[in-house]
């Protein structure tokens, strides 16, 4: 098996930028339209784009149990993640805090993999997990101190993180042999249907059509198509550990983008949380080197 190479800056930079820009853009979107309505439209358009790509590329479509596994992966990865993140931001969770929580995905994934898949957790990954939890607690504590009260909407953001991590593990366990183009289309269709049902009871509406339209197009093109494609390419070039470690750079870039775009000035707690999260992700995704046993 060929060894993984380092991810070049020309590939790492687009991955970080596309993911980081999604949070402030999503905040603009939920300011112009109801969160579940916005998520439904985004997922529906993304499903159409992915379906066209799969048809043009003559990808093999999953059927039977494979289609069911793809649907479950989509409900976790897309419905829970985006529904939780956008619902939280619509209820007042800042984009920078959302990005920080979601950046814990590699660390939480490592913990769930150890619990559910019996994968080994080294001392460095355990330390990364502890620092990751501390990063979230420091950030949320700072938010409570600045706002004077606990915002229960952060639970939606945490639900989004859980869906993101669980979806990745489910994908690894049950969807390994499914074409990512057709499988991705099935995933987003399933997620769009479920979020669409929730949106029907939301009594959602659009307050600013131009802003909502621009943000949805940006989220579909950069998030669902370009961002995912660049990330999968990064996995192919550098391996999953190195690629997921790129998430450690997402929160600071999100804070930088959100400052002029949303007027969200990073607090001291957010800055400390970003530093802890970066360290946690590096430790939680580091490649272990093992000394070969003597023959």
TrEMBL record:
<feature type="transmembrane region" description="Helical">
    <location>
        <begin position="213"/>
        <end position="232"/>
    </location>
</feature>
<feature type="transmembrane region" description="Helical">
    <location>
        <begin position="182"/>
        <end position="201"/>
    </location>
</feature>
<dbReference type="InterPro" id="IPR037185">
    <property type="entry name" value="EmrE-like"/>
</dbReference>
<dbReference type="InterPro" id="IPR050638">
    <property type="entry name" value="AA-Vitamin_Transporters"/>
</dbReference>
<comment type="similarity">
    <text>Belongs to the EamA transporter family.</text>
</comment>
<feature type="domain" description="EamA">
    <location>
        <begin position="11"/>
        <end position="140"/>
    </location>
</feature>
<feature type="transmembrane region" description="Helical">
    <location>
        <begin position="268"/>
        <end position="285"/>
    </location>
</feature>
<dbReference type="InterPro" id="IPR000620">
    <property type="entry name" value="EamA_dom"/>
</dbReference>
<protein>
    <submittedName>
        <fullName>DMT family transporter</fullName>
    </submittedName>
</protein>
<feature type="domain" description="EamA">
    <location>
        <begin position="152"/>
        <end position="283"/>
    </location>
</feature>
<feature type="transmembrane region" description="Helical">
    <location>
        <begin position="150"/>
        <end position="170"/>
    </location>
</feature>
<feature type="transmembrane region" description="Helical">
    <location>
        <begin position="97"/>
        <end position="117"/>
    </location>
</feature>
<feature type="transmembrane region" description="Helical">
    <location>
        <begin position="244"/>
        <end position="262"/>
    </location>
</feature>
<keyword id="KW-0472">Membrane</keyword>
<feature type="transmembrane region" description="Helical">
    <location>
        <begin position="124"/>
        <end position="144"/>
    </location>
</feature>
<keyword id="KW-1133">Transmembrane helix</keyword>
<keyword id="KW-0812">Transmembrane</keyword>
<feature type="transmembrane region" description="Helical">
    <location>
        <begin position="39"/>
        <end position="59"/>
    </location>
</feature>
<dbReference type="Pfam" id="PF00892">
    <property type="entry name" value="EamA"/>
</dbReference>
């Amino acid at each position: 098996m060929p060894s993984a190479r380092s991810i070049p800056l020309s590939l790492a930079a687009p991955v970080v930028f596309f993911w980081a820009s999604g949070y402030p853009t999503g905040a603009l979107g939920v300011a112009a339209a109801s969160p579940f309505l916005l998520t439904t439209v985004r997922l529906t358009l993304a499903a159409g784009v992915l379906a066209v790509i799969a048809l043009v590329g003559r990808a093999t479509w999953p059927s039977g149990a494979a289609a069911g596994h793809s649907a479950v992966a989509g409900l976790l990865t897309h419905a829970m993640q985006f529904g939780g993140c956008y619902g939280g931001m619509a209820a007042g969770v800042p984009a920078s805090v959302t990005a920080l929580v979601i950046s814990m995905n590699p660390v939480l994934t490592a913990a769930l993999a150890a619990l559910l898949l019996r994968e080994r957790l080294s001392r460095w990954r355990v330390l990364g997990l502890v620092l990751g939890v501390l990063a979230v607690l420091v950030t949320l504590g700072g938010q409570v101190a600045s706002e004077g009260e606990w915002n229960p909407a952060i639970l939606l953001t945490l639900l989004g993180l859980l869906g993101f991590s669980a979806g990745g593990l489910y994908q690894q366990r049950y969807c390994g042999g499914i074409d990512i183009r057709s499988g991705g289309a099935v995933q987003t269709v399933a997620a769009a249907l479920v979020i669409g049902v929730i949106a029907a009871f939301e009594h959602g509406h659009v307050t600013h059509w131009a802003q909502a339209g621009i943000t949805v197009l940006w989220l579909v093109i950069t998030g669902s198509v370009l961002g995912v494609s660049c990330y999968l390419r990064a996995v192919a070039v550098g391996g999953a550990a190195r690629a997921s470690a790129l998430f450690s750079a997402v929160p600071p870039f999100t804070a930088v983008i959100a400052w002029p775009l949303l007027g969200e000035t990073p607090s001291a707690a957010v800055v400390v949380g970003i530093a802890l999260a970066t360290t946690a992700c590096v430790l939680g995704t580091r490649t272990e080197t093992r000394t070969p046993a003597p023959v």
